[in-house]
Amino acid sequence: MDPPGSVVRPNGVRPADNALVDGGGRRISPRLRYHLNVRALIEHRAELRTSRIVVTHVGEETLARLAEVPFDVAADGSVFQL
Length: 82
Hints:
By secondary structure, the chain is α/β, with parallel strands linked by helices. It is built from 2 helices and 3 strands.
């Protein structure tokens, strides 16, 4: 069960043009309890009412599988046009 107000719940992200999300879960799958990861974002993308997601703080496994990540991924020094 996800914590109240979790981003993976439809009411967790209000309509927005951009959402910066900490994807610090060490694994692209499976999910860690009470910690968001990229797999959870992929699974719940349709519920997140934002046109763009930028994921920060991803782990080594996610970095090694960037082709599977359908979001922008921030790294040190990244610059994004809003």
